[in-house]
UniProtKB/TrEMBL annotation:
Residues 1-20, 252-272 are annotated as: Disordered. GO terms for molecular function: ATP binding; ATP hydrolysis activity; transmembrane transporter activity. Residues 252-263 have a biased composition (Basic and acidic residues). Residues 28-266 form the ABC transporter domain. This is Lipoprotein-releasing system ATP-binding protein LolD. Keywords: ATP-binding, Lipoprotein, Nucleotide-binding, Transport. Residues 8-19 have a biased composition (Low complexity). GO terms for cellular component: membrane protein complex; plasma membrane.
Length: 272
């Protein structure tokens, strides 16, 4: 495990509470991952030797300016893209060992995405939206619906299962999107500005749901520009020009990575 993943004040591996330390496999591991986009003069080193582990029960916030590599990081973690160099392990599987079909299967099995704009299908009810990825995965409709109902209950929306997205508030739609991300066995949650389209009160409520899912055993990677939302994470990593840096912009050394207590979000007054 990379030393970068160890919390400065913690005697146990990254993200694991002492009680969970022994049982906590890493759901996402990036080991010296580099991603170069383009070729020749147009070459961009979007990520440069990034190492990061995220385990069950751990929510990691990713912050950084536009173009610093946040989306590239999420795409690699979500098996939508492959590294130029280094190793990406999702759910214990080295992504480089898989072809496109294998990566898609790994993604469906392990990864749930939560996007800023929800990406719900308007013609489908909440429960149909949530069960759709499982049905596409070959799970029988009855089982997929049962899983979807459980996922909706987990985000407090079981009473709105038959409602269409257009008849829901923004926060309710985003909770459906979270339910869709966690339905079935998937436990790696990748969220890209999931509260961006929401007012602050609703955004906080969505963060609380994300946090609860992580506390229930998922691993989460949250891209955000908002320190109040980063304060919900166990730790925050900062990207700059494709590199992990500390909050002052220096290249991160292990002791520089911030845990939740010292992250800037704590100064924002955000509460859990
Ligand atoms: N497909 C691509 N081809 C060429 N360059 C790319 C490609 N995708 C990303 N880049 C470049 O890689 C760098 C990192 O981009 P990325 O989208 O990961 O940043 P980001 O931090 O997510 O930015 P934003 O906050 O604006 O979404 C940028 O310089 C970007 O222009």
């Amino acid at each position: 495990m990379s030393a970068l993943t160890t919390r400065p004040s913690s005697p146990v591996p990254s993200g694991a509470s002492p009680s969970r330390a022994d049982a906590a496999p890493v759901l996402l591991r990036l080991d010296r991952v580099t991603r170069v986009h383009g070729t020749g003069a147009g070459e961009v080193r979007a990520l440069d030797a990034i190492s990061l582990d995220v385990g069950p029960g751990e929510l990691v916030a990713v912050m950084g300016p536009s173009g610093s590599g946040k989306s590239t990081l999420l795409n690699l973690a979500g098996c939508l893209d492959t590294a130029t160099d280094g190793t990406v392990v999702v759910g214990g599987v080295d992504v480089a060992s898989l072809d496109a079909r294998g990566r898609a299967a790994l993604r469906r099995r392990h990864v749930g995405f939560v996007f800023q704009d929800f990406n719900l299908v308007p013609a489908l009810t909440a429960v149909e939206n949530v069960s759709l990825p499982r049905e596409l995965d070959g799970v029988p409709v009855r089982s997929a619906r049962a899983e979807a109902t459980a996922a909706l209950a987990a985000v407090g929306l079981d009473d709105l299962a038959d409602r269409f997205p257009d008849d829901m508030s923004g926060g309710q739609r985003q909770r459906v999107a979270i339910a869709r991300a966690i339905v079935g066995p998937r436990r790696l949650l990748l969220a890209d500005e999931p509260t961006g389209a929401l007012d602050s009160v609703t955004g906080e409520a969505v963060m609380r749901v994300l946090r609860e899912r992580v506390d229930a055993g998922a691993a989460g990677l949250l891209v955000t520009h908002d320190a109040r939302h980063a304060a919900w994470a166990d730790r925050t990593v900062f990207l700059k020009d494709g590199r992990l840096v500390d909050s002052t912009g220096r290249r991160a050394e292990p002791a520089d990575l911030l845990d939740r207590d010292s992250a800037s979000g704590d100064e924002s007054g955000a509460t859990r």
